[in-house]
Amino acid sequence: MFYDARKNDHGLPHDPFKAILAPRPVGWISSMNAAGAVNLAPYSYFNGVCSRPPMVMFASEGYKDTIAFIEETKEFVCNLATFDLREAMNETSAPHPRGVNEMERAGLAPAPSVLVRPPRVAASPCALECKWLQTVHLSDVDGNALDRHVVFGQVVGVFIDDRFLRDGLLDTAGMRPIARAGYHDYFVATPETKFSLKRPTEP
Ligand SMILES: Cc1cc2nc3c(=O)[nH]c(=O)nc-3n(C[C@H](O)[C@H](O)[C@H](O)COP(=O)(O)O)c2cc1C
Q1: pTM (2 decimals)?
Q2: Which residue intervals of the chain are DSSP H helices?
Q3: Which atom of ligand 1 is closest in space to residue 61's alpha carbon?
């Protein structure tokens, strides 16, 4: 099949776009506003964009609390969402009124960050402490301004739970990170689904 994405005329019961662009890492983003209120929400239009210096991005479909808080204080933390934390992660996506602390609501303990003010999720095995770099406000191919915003941040501090460091390597599969797919689906990384490939130029 083929469909015209601008008409969205796929004729399927649900839009397949997110099921194609999958699995996506989940940036579980904690932020704080100028008054010190804490916010936590998952974003799967999320990824790293470079490693030196390490930088990340996430996209907000609508001007949500996370982006509003980040633009106030210019800091945020990307917590790793894991299989063990999946229910709490999902709970933090509920559309609470601005000012409600989703971390508290989901029964998650905060832990202080080192280089930024927003706390990390204590139970998450990795957290990237970020400073805001810029927000790109998107327009479509016809030049229409959209309520779609991409935030870029530089990672200035990295928390790793030492239990997942083995012989100097981070055991990603051991943390069982979850990744978002389409519909209500997710994937989980496990040792069984891991494989390795050396780049052609490597010995
Ligand atoms: C796994 C998952 C991934 C999500 N990814 C995004 C995303 O990339 N962009 C977005 O705008 N909303 C996304 N959402 C929805 C937001 O989490 C939801 O709108 C939330 O209430 C936003 O919270 P905030 O207003 O506190 O920032 C996602 C939800 C879930 C469960």
Answers
A1: 0.97
A2: 17-20, 65-73, 86-91, 102-105, 172-175
A3: 11
